[in-house]
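For reproducibility, we list the full input for the heme C complex.
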Amino acid sequence: MIRKIKIIKTIIIIFSLTFPFSVNAQTVEEIIKGRKAMFSENYQNAKKISILLKSKKIQEAKPLMKKISDNYDKLLDYFPENTKEGSKTEALPSIWENKDEFNALMKKASDDMIKLAKAIDTAEDLRAVQKELMWSNCSACHSKFRAPH
Ligand code: HEC
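The corresponding predicted structure, in tokenized form, follows.
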């Protein structure tokens, strides 16, 4: 009888010790997949913006700029310490070694999309202003914080 209780106790202890880790592992995967999905969505929207602006569809492009900006803001919360590896992440360790710089680049990228939405009303060279306020931020961040792919 006492043996049985001991066995049951052991099983309960093992479960309660390993359960939090199994939940955590799933969460890490969800976070990494979540941020990849947001970057992909931003890329799709950035390409759409370029196409729209080529045909001077300025008003149609604006909501997409807001969407990219919002995604960048959300992405600030998608790089917790426990998501350095796994789920084929291309995030480099330099992110966590320079978290302030990384976050500042993310914030700048977000703010620049709002600036872009204003600038296209009056900009003479739409290509140049997109390069300055949208595309340059991708490469500035990737060159230091995303693995070559
Ligand atoms: C402040 C940093 C930062 C900015 C700005 C940024 N990226 Fe990224 N991007 C990353 C990081 C870090 C990853 C790797 C994420 C991972 O694999 O966990 C990434 C991944 C990606 C991916 C791959 C997603 C996947 O499915 O694996 C694409 C596509 C991408 N970025 C496009 C862009 C484009 C286009 C822009 C500009 C419009 C941009 N990014 C701006 C940091 C940034």
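Residues 32, 35-36, 39-40, 42-43, 46, 89-91, 102, 105-106, 109, 134, 137-138, 141-142, 145-146 surround heme C (CB under 6 Å). The chain has a mean pLDDT of 91. Both points were considered when choosing residues for closer inspection.
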